[in-house]
């Protein structure tokens, strides 16, 4: 199918509107970005830094927590220092802490230098007080530390002054003794203490696909076959289904789950091998990774009359393709009480309606989902919602009339039926020219 110049212009205009809306929404918002140090060796590193600079210039308060695992590995290996891993912690001799510190600050300095090249001032600071992890069940964790306190007042002052704070994965005790702490835990704890709007994990090799994980057949997937979003309930089930999977992504998901439970609205796991992944995730609905979110991220609500123009804009491509009947602004205003919408970050991304008839039949109609959100499973959610609404009104069945989406409705449990079973009022509107198929779902 050929896309006209007008269609392309409309699509581009909508993208621009989305970007402006998200910039307004997240102005002065705080975001914490954990950068896996393998990303620093990528050809896309400078592009990611430019994107972070753009986010800062757009009014976001940015905090960076670099991982340093690879750099620490390299430095210890170069100096013939042995180590082992225990429950995800690096165990090594106490005299290796200067090398670990050096490696952690090397990574932070590289990021600070790159930000400086984009005209931004970053500060590497010791805002973290830590304590020894100690001896647990007889095992001595040595120089591994736990986060004791983050100096939030000092950190907020740095952010308010327009600087970008960078946290090395080192914490200091009250007496000044350094400890190696988990950069992932540090990013999570910092996001929680700052009451951040978002926490990003920028890491290579992080796609959540059915080839690597057990994914429910009911789980919506992106066009690339990845899981685009998980609410907390879905994530609990996902982790249970993949309890034996040793992928590093599982650790990020577990930490993201706990971070959301403790107040951060959204956690994003992004593929550092994709150029533009950060701005796409924060300034558009497109996304490029997996988002963990609380259940209030997107929601169904009743349509209001002020939504008319947005709903009509959403429906227009489907009307032009003949999937939906033509409706005018006046038509929508006259029937808006029958409609529901799906609102995502303040924008209407889907709609549907339920019309009830005197013989206890309900018609589900006007289902439209923004194509950028079509992989999120919104359509079935709208249908399920309206089925429950029909049950509340004591409807015995609901039906749909469709020309191009019968397979989709059959997958949801609808079965073909005879046009003669339509309510008389609706049958009078059916035309042979359109020749819509009737599918029905019995509720009793």
Molecular structure report:
With 444 residues, this protein is α/β, with parallel strands linked by helices. It has two domains: 8-296, Acetylglutamate kinase-like (Carbamate kinase, 3-Layer(aba) Sandwich); 299-442, 3-Layer(aba) Sandwich (Aminopeptidase), CATH 3.40.630. The protein contains 14 helices and 23 strands. The strands form seven sheets. A seven-stranded mixed sheet has the order 17-18-19-20-21-23-22. Helix 3 crosses helix 4 (97-116) and helix 7 runs antiparallel to helix 8 (248-261).
Question: Architecture of the largest domain, CATH level 2?
Answer: 3-Layer(aba) Sandwich
- The CATH superfamily name of the largest domain is Acetylglutamate kinase-like
% residues in beta strands = 15-25%
How many structural domains does the protein architecture include? 2
Number of strands: 23
CATH topology name of the largest domain: Carbamate kinase
Report the total helices: 14
Q: Give average pLDDT, whole number.
A: 90
Largest sheet: spatial strand order: 17-18-19-20-21-23-22
Helix content: 25-40%
What is the rounded Rg? 26 Å
Shape: elongated
CATH level-1 class of the largest domain: Alpha Beta
Give descriptors for this structure.
444 residues; Carbamate kinase; Aminopeptidase; six-stranded mixed β-sheet; elongated
Short description:
α3 (about 70-80) crosses α4 (about 95-115) and α6 packs parallel to α8. The protein has helices at about 5-25, 45-55, 70-80, 95-115, 150-160, 185-195, 230-240, 250-260, 275-285, 310-320, 330-335, 380-390, 405-410, 425; strands spanning about 30-35, 60-65, 85, 90, 120-125, 130, 135, 140, 145-150, 165, 170, 180, 200-205, 230, 265-270, 290-295, 300, 340-345, 345-355, 360-370, 395-400, 415, 435-440. The protein has about 450 residues and is of the alpha/beta class.
């Amino acid at each position: 199918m050929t896309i006209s110049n007008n269609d392309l212009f409309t699509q581009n205009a909508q993208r621009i509107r989305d970007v402006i809306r998200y910039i307004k929404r997240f102005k002065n918002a705080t975001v914490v970005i954990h950068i896996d140090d393998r990303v620093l060796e990528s050809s896309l590193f400078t592009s990611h830094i430019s994107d972070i600079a753009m986010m800062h210039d757009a009014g976001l308060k940015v905090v960076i927590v670099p991982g340093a695992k690879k750099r620490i590995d390299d430095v210890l290996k170069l100096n013939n220092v042995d180590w082992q891993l225990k429950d995800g912690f690096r165990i090594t001799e106490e005299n290796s802490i200067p090398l670990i510190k050096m490696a952690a600050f090397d990574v932070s300095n590289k990021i600070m230098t790159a930000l400086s090249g984009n005209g931004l001032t970053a500060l590497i600071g010791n805002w973290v007080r830590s304590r020894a992890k100690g001896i647990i069940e007889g095992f001595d964790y040595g120089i591994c530390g736990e986060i004791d306190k983050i100096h939030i007042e000092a950190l907020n002052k740095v952010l308010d002054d327009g600087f970008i704070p960078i946290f090395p994965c080192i914490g200091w005790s009250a007496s000044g003794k350094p400890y190696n702490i988990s950069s992932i835990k540090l990013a999570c704890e910092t996001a929680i203490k700052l009451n951040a709007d978002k926490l990003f994990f920028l890491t290579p090799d992080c796609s959540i696909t059915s080839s690597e994980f057990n994914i429910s057949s009911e789980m919506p997937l992106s066009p690339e076959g990845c899981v685009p979003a998980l609410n907390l309930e879905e994530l609990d089930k996902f982790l249970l289904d993949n309890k034996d999977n040793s992928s590093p992504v599982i650790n990020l998901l577990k930490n993201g789950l706990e971070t959301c439970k403790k107040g951060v609205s959204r956690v994003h796991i992004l593929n550092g091998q994709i150029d533009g992944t950060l701005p796409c995730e924060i300034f558009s609905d497109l996304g490029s990774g997996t988002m963990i979110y609380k259940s209030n991220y997107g929601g169904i609500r009743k349509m209001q009359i002020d939504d008319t123009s947005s709903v009509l804009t959403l429906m227009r491509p489907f009307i032009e393709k003949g999937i939906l009947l033509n409706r005018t602004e006046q038509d929508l205003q006259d029937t808006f009480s029958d409609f529901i919408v799906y609102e995502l970050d303040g924008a209407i991304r889907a709609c549907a309606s339920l019309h009830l008839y005197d013989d206890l039949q309900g018609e589900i109609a006007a289902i439209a989902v923004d194509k950028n959100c079509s992989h999120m499973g919104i359509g079935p959610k709208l249908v399920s919602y309206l089925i429950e609404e029909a049950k509340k009104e004591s409807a015995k069945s609901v039906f749909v009339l469709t020309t191009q989406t019968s397979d989709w409705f059959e997958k949801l449990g609808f079965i073909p039926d005879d046009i003669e079973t339509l309510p008389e009022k609706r049958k009078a509107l059916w035309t042979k020219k359109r020749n819509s198929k009737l599918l029905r779902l019995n509720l009793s």
